[in-house]
Specification:
Largest sheet: 11 strands, antiparallel
Helix content: 10-25%
Strand content: over 45%
Number of helices: 4
Mean pLDDT: 97
Radius of gyration: 17 Å
Structural class: mainly beta
Oligomer: single chain
Number of domains: 1
Length: 239
């Protein structure tokens, strides 16, 4: 494994400890302008998410209103009632975003896909670096706010559904993730810079509890107005 990838995984608790668990869940409080732009304001302001650690799946509850849950998998999303009744299904959901721009509004199903894909990626990072066929390369260091961060270019295989195949992780001297860059392909390739801090230790694994996402410029600088997405996590549990 790439040495910086190994350092980062170890700093977040280590792969062997991570392998002891099957899922991670958290309570989310979310904000930012994205939800209004996409026509889904209020759906996920306060919700709970559970994601898989062995395969790619996620569920938000409640989803939109009490008694509704989302179920995300790469090739299928669904919305279910609390009793398990299926309220809607969208097979091959990524295809439904063809031609979308940042301003294109989302359906309930498309929101379920985006939110599931995003939170699965965030809560599994950096341990995804150890998944088969993930390729990492260290880039030149990056200076920001008086700090120097090491950078890791990550290329994900087609078997992993995420924002974009190529992403960049910014790592501090302790090995903790500080920033995560990607292009949101399903929103017209919109470039994002995702900051992570407020780390807590949960069963030996470190998670950032404060996430802020902004627009990224071509030179990797960041436009901090507006705040695109905010995510505050609490009640994190590994099982």
């Amino acid at each position: 494994m790439n040495s910086l990838a190994q350092l980062t995984i170890d700093a977040h608790g280590g792969l062997e400890r991570w392998k002891e668990f099957e899922t991670v869940s958290a309570h989310l409080v979310q904000g930012g302008v994205l939800w209004q732009v996409k026509g889904v304001a209020g759906y996920l302001d306060a919700t709970n998410v559970t994601v898989g650690l062995r395969r790619e799946w996620a569920s938000h509850s409640p989803f939109g209103s009490a008694g509704r849950n989302s179920k995300f998998e790469p090739e299928r999303v669904a919305i279910e009632a609390a009793d398990g009744t299926i309220l809607g299904v969208l097979p091959m959901p990524r295809r439904s975003f063809a031609g979308h721009t940042l301003q294109t509004q989302w359906t309930d199903m498309q929101l379920a896909y985006f939110a599931g894909c995003a939170m699965w990626t965030y809560l599994n990072t950096p341990f995804l670096l150890a998944w088969p066929n993930v390729v990492c390369e260290e880039l030149s260091p990056w200076k920001e706010n008086g700090e120097v961060w090491r950078r890791l270019s990550v290329h994900y295989p087609d078997s992993i559904v995420t924002h974009s195949p190529k992403q960049t992780l910014y790592i501090d001297e302790r090995g903790l993730l500080k920033r995560h860059d990607y292009d949101v392909e399903i929103a017209g390739g919109t470039p994002g810079a995702h900051y992570a801090d407020g780390y807590v230790d949960v069963s030996g694994i470190k998670f950032p509890t404060r996430r802020r996402i902004f627009a990224r410029q071509a030179n990797a600088s960041v436009n901090r107005d507006p705040l695109v997405v905010s995510i505050d996590l609490s009640s994190i549990q590994l099982r």
